[in-house]
Amino acid sequence: MGEEKANATPSADVVKVHKCPICGKLTDNAKYRPFCCKRCADIDLGNWFGEGYVIEGKAPIDEEESE
What is the pLDDT, as a whole number, of residue 61? Predict the structure, then answer.
């Protein structure tokens, strides 16, 4: 019995359901993953383009000011 569990692989037919990060609907749509639809994917892209998301870091050094 122990060998059966060790050799078992997850079935390719298993569908994972996730929540869309934009609207919160449950989704298993692989085409727009992790989003539920194109609309939510486009909203997220618009947030990046509109600087709605920020990755914190150090400010770049201006070489002219440092001289």
Answer: 80
Over residues 32-47, the mean pLDDT reads 94
In this prediction, residue 43 carries a pLDDT of 96
CA 52 to chain centre: 16
**Are the C-beta atoms of 35 and 44 separated by less than 8 Å?**
yes
Between the alpha carbon of residue 52 and those of residues 2, 18, 28, 37, 44, the distances in Å are 51, 23, 26, 20, 9
Residue 18: is it exposed, middle or buried by C-beta count within 10 angstroms (0-12/13-18/19+)? Answer: middle
pTM for this model (two decimals): 0.58
DSSP line for 24-40: --EE--STTTTSSSHHH
